[in-house]
Task: inverse folding
């Protein structure tokens, strides 16, 4: 039997707390590159000015350690837990919630979570986080934090298409979702698409696909072609940055596919705003 | 910013008559914050024939729920929230003399019509440019509904607050016209 690697719950909480602040203050280089490229490529003067503002905003947020956006999001945490890891002195989920509580307090981040979807009383500390855990081989824990804004999450959609709808039906649904969303998800957006699996798994794949770096192409060339076609059709809509008209509505489209039932074709579209706040840490050996 | 139009609050009809969709503006002076919950209360006061907590005539309302201010700073990050959620309340405020609103995203036909009728404009600020917009805020005071937390009504003193005219007093809509201009295929 392999040796257990011990990782303390307090270390996990500490790292999560740091990721909450790091993600909200420091925009990743891949997003900055995409914004710079878009500034150069955009034909609409109004939209070009939006890109200039977003680049300046990222600079100010970094320098002043201020949130890029006042909506500092719901904390979505993806954990890849090595099967030889033992969480010492506590529980994994408790540690994650504790880290979110600390990070949102110390970082002066907005608390945007309500206790109940109907009664709507604020929890006051931005917990609970949404946690996805996957058990993987090995002795490491990889934790990815995402601050997911409400405006873009609200414009996401899912459909149970029929197998006959096929590739074209999938593309049409994705493009239609962006068209309906218009300015609301704060374009330029990033589009995550999950195809296949089940009703719930397609949505999970869509969200998980957002973790890939911008501009990265899918390893499967057929999926990469699908991403490219969706991106072109989305950008042909003319919605543009902030919905004010322009050539660049989406910075990137990421697609994940999974086997599914012979009767089913689930398609989920998770929309992400340009304030794409994702940070990762790896613990253990 | 080149070619931006400088506007001082409170706004007069003559200040906004010349504004066209797509114009860049820089706003100076006092603006008031309000979002969903505060709008509900303001419109309840109007329906009951009561006074509002501030004189709304000629003023600008900014749809925002800021992040908490760090010690020594007037405000946290403060970008616009989605304006369409306020559409149901806006015509009644425009009828009371509100001259402009600031937010992100398009307005309803009813609001666009009310802006024409009452000679008011809608400015789009950049959603997600919240640190940049915070830098334009010199002073922030809660003037009503402190119990609403991030949704309380605040009086902001701003300098060079950047926005673009999305709806003018003539019924034009940049969200519609801009998209038509750049769509392809």
Result:
């Amino acid at each position: 039997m392999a040796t257990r690697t011990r990782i303390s719950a307090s270390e996990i909480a500490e790292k999560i707390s740091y990721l909450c602040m790091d993600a909200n203050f420091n925009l990743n280089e891949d997003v900055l590159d995409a914004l710079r490229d878009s500034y150069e490529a955009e034909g609409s003067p109004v939209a070009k000015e939006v890109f200039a503002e977003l680049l300046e905003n990222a600079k100010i947020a970094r320098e002043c350690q201020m949130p890029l956006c006042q909506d500092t999001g719901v904390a979505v945490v993806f954990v890849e837990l090595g099967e030889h890891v033992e969480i010492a002195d506590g529980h994994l989920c408790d540690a994650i919630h504790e880290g979110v509580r600390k990070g949102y307090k110390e970082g002066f981040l907005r608390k945007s979570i309500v206790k109940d979807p109907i009664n709507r009383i604020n929890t006051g500390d931005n917990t609970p986080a949404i946690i996805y855990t996957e058990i993987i081989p090995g002795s490491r824990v990889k934790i990815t934090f995402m601050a997911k804004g409400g405006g873009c999450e609200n414009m996401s959609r899912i459909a149970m298409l029929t197998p006959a709808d096929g590739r074209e039906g999938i593309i049409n649904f994705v493009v239609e979702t962006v068209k309906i969303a218009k300015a609301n998800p704060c374009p330029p957006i990033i589009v995550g698409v999950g195809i296949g699996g089940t009703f719930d798994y397609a949505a999970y794949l869509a969200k998980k696909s957002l973790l890939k770096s911008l501009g990265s192409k899918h390893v499967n060339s057929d999926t990469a072609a699908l991403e490219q076609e969706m991106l072109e059709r989305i950008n042909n809509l003319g919605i543009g940055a902030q919905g004010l008209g322009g050539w660049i509505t989406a910075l990137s489209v990421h697609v994940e596919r999974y086997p599914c039932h012979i009767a089913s074709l689930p398609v989920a579209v998770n929309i992400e705003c340009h304030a794409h706040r994702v940070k990762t840490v790896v613990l253990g050996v | 910013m080149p070619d931006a139009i400088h506007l001082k609050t409170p706004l007069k009809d003559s200040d906004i008559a010349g504004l066209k969709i797509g114009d860049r503006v820089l706003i100076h002076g006092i603006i008031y914050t309000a979002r969903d919950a505060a709008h509900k209360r303001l419109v309840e006061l109007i329906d009951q024939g009561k006074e509002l907590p501030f004189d709304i005539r000629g003023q600008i309302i900014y749809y925002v729920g800021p992040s908490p201010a760090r010690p020594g700073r007037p405000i946290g990050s403060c970008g616009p929230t989605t304006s369409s959620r306020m559409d149901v309340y806006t015509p009644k405020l425009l009828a009371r003399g509100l001259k402009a609103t600031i937010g992100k995203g398009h307005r309803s036909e009813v609001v666009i019509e009310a802006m024409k009728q009452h000679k008011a404009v809608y400015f789009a600020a950049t959603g997600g440019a919240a640190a940049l917009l915070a830098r334009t805020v010199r002073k922030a005071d809660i003037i009503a509904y402190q119990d609403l937390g991030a949704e309380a009504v605040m009086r902001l003193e701003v300098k060079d607050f950047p926005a673009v005219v999305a709806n003018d007093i003539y019924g034009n809509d940049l969200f519609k016209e801009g998209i038509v201009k750049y769509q392809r295929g």
